């Protein structure tokens, strides 16, 4: 999912009265995985 797609999904869900839970599950070593983190950063850049 790209940042733009994430923002569009968020807007669509909120417009219908819903909530979107964004979750980053840690890797077995306790670090965040890079793909969701990059996506969420892109969502933040696209939103602002």
Automatic annotation (TrEMBL):
<protein>
    <submittedName>
        <fullName>Alpha-L-fucosidase</fullName>
    </submittedName>
</protein>
<dbReference type="InterPro" id="IPR057739">
    <property type="entry name" value="Glyco_hydro_29_N"/>
</dbReference>
<feature type="domain" description="Glycoside hydrolase family 29 N-terminal">
    <location>
        <begin position="3"/>
        <end position="43"/>
    </location>
</feature>
<dbReference type="Pfam" id="PF01120">
    <property type="entry name" value="Alpha_L_fucos"/>
</dbReference>
<dbReference type="InterPro" id="IPR017853">
    <property type="entry name" value="GH"/>
</dbReference>
């Amino acid at each position: 999912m790209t940042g733009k797609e994430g923002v569009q999904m968020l807007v669509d869900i909120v417009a219908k009265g819903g909530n979107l839970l964004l979750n980053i599950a840690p890797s077995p070593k306790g670090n965040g995985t890079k793909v969701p983190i990059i996506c969420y950063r892109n969502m933040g850049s696209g939103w602002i």
